[in-house]
Amino acid sequence: MLILAPMQGLTEVLFRKTYETCYPGAFDYAVSPFVSLTHGNLHDAEKKIHDVLPEVNQDSMVVVPQILGHEKEEFVDLANRFYELGYSEVNWNMGCPMRRVAHKHRGSGILPYPEEVRDILTHVMTRIRPKLSVKVRLGYYSPDEIDHIIPVLNDFPLKDITIHPRIGKQQYSGRPDLEKLAQIVPEIRHRIIYNGDICTTYDYKKIMQLFPSIKDVMIGRGVLYNPTLPLQIRNQFSADFGGEGTPDPSSHCTSAAEFVIQLMNNILQMNVSDQAKGRKMKEYWCLASRSLPGTEERKRRVLHASALDEIFNRILEIAK
Ligand SMILES: Cc1cc2nc3c(=O)[nH]c(=O)nc-3n(C[C@H](O)[C@H](O)[C@H](O)COP(=O)(O)O)c2cc1C
Q1: pLDDT tops 70 at residue 41
Q2: Which is the closest atom of ligand 1 to the Cα of 32?
Q3: Where along the chain do its domains lie?
Q4: d(CA 319, CA 78)
Q5: Is it the case that residue 42 has pLDDT exceeding 60?
């Protein structure tokens, strides 16, 4: 399976919908950017979970809501709220590396504390109605922290474990630690989803060859750099996908540029200020322009524009 990674500020429903319209079926499903148990508008719960409301996600890809935090009662309430909305699975974020999050034992910051993980899972697993999957790093301070987390995770009936083989302290620097991953894979009783630095079909092939027991990968930045990557993977390695290759190729965008234009058009329709639309366009442009032809200098001109129509037109000049 190919799964779209959660990326706060990037893979919200606007992106997921645009992507599914342009490349239907390229991803099997997405995990949503995290919903924090403590932050956001606690008094307006609907606003907090807006990104995964079923009515907002019509015509989008299948999504699994993600929860960030360690507050047990709130966890149970939110997971069961998602279940009421029709979600049969929720994902627990044990990977977020942001210092202000991790220092409160949230995200990857809980990985040095296996007994806290056990306590939370013991509480929530008997009380939540959806299945639970988790997304982890190897640790926060050290990759050896995972050695103490695995026996805990093995004791619970989790749906699957997504592993991003870096530690929290690294943020996104360095390379995924594939040696450590190779050590721990045989110890894990659950289905494993690999995540990290899959940006080309070669990266995908390398992971599949190194870890024959892993069948599923989650892709984040790679699809923003190159929106056609999941289709390239499906076509080149169609045997990994039941020999099916690209689902319904006739309905796909034929180029990355077409997707980028569609995304920018959908940003134009957003119900936010022009300034916010311009910022959003630039955020995506920084990542997605890599897949388009043209010099770096010309691409940078988009970032130097300030008025919304100027930003949009400069993008069109390159993408068309
Ligand atoms: C801007 C940004 C936001 C992210 N937000 C989340 C998030 O909300 N939840 C989560 O589990 N991971 C989050 N991640 C981590 C990604 O899901 C993924 O694990 C990471 O980018 C490595 O995968 P990749 O190399 O395929 O991008 C985020 C990463 C980035 C760069």
Answers
A1: no
A2: 8
A3: 2-247, 256-319
A4: 41
A5: no
Count of H-run helices and E-run strands, the chain: 14, 8
pTM for the predicted model, two decimal places:
0.96
Is 195 close to ligand 1, i.e. is its CB under 6 Å away?
yes
Distance CA 125, CA 127 (A): 6
Closest CA to 185 of 236, 132, 147: 147
Six-digit token pair at 264? 């920018």
CB distance 93 to 67 below 8 Å: yes
User: What's the fold here for domain 2-247?
Assistant: TIM Barrel (3.20.20)
**Interval 144-167 mean pLDDT:** 98
3-class secondary-structure state, position 177: coil
Q: Is 9 close to ligand 1, i.e. is its CB under 6 Å away? A: yes
Give the per-residue pLDDT at 245: 65
Strands 2-4 and 89-94: unpaired
Q: Which two tokens stand for residue 26?
A: 């390229």
**Least confident segment among 73-82, 169-178, 237-246:** 237-246
DSSP secondary structure code for residue 246 in this structure: S
Q: From CA 272, how far away is CA 268, in angstroms rounded?
A: 9
CA of 33 to the centre of ligand 1 (A): 8
Q: Is the pLDDT of residue 44 over 70?
A: no
Whether the pLDDT of residue 252 is over 90: the answer is: no
d(CA 278, CA 270): 11
